[in-house]
Design goal:
By secondary structure, the protein is α+β, with helices and mostly antiparallel strands. It has a single domain, classed as Arc Repressor Mutant, subunit A (Orthogonal Bundle), CATH 1.10.10.10. The chain is built from 4 helices and 6 strands; from the N terminus they run E-E-H-H-E-H-H-E-E-E. It has helices at 18-22, 29-41, 48-56, 67-81, and strands at residues 2-4, 11-16, 46-47, 87-88, 101-102, 105-106. A two-stranded antiparallel ribbon has the order 1-2. It has a two-stranded antiparallel sheet with strand order 3-5. The protein has a two-stranded antiparallel sheet with strand order 4-6. Helix 3 (48-56) crosses helix 4. The protein starts with a strand and ends in a 6-residue tail after the last strand. The model has no long low-confidence stretch (mean pLDDT 81).
């Protein structure tokens, strides 16, 4: 699948959909839910609250009290694994991300 530019809706050269690249990655259910949400929004960011809703929306109790921390834990685990598949989730602490919002972006060569 080719990625379309969010501005002009034209195909972006050399970009394939993240879900295509990550389809072979073995993940637990929570990781798969988060990756699917990030892939559906690509290249836009997804808020922590949306990810909490995706993870715990069907839970009658609304999920754990520390649901935002649970999302952060899933994100941190994915950050360690994604570069080997050519993708990354920027970290706000390094100045490339937006605190409380997560997005996928292609990993730079040599990044692991």
């Amino acid at each position: 699948m080719t990625i379309l530019c969010p501005c002009c809706n034209r195909p972006m050269e050399g970009q394939t959909a993240p879900l295509d690249a990550l389809s072979d990655m073995r993940m637990v259910r929570r990781q798969r839910i988060v990756i699917t949400a990030l892939c559906e929004a690509y290249p836009r960011a997804v808020s922590s609250e949306v990810l909490v809703d995706r993870l715990y929306g069907d839970d009658p109790s609304g999920g754990p009290e520390d649901a935002l921390a649970a999302v952060g834990s899933v994100i941190n685990k994915l950050r360690k694994r994604l570069p080997s598949y050519g993708w990354t989730i920027p970290n706000a602490a390094k100045g490339t991300g937006d605190k409380g919002r997560y997005r996928l972006e292609p990993a730079h060569k040599g990044e692991n």
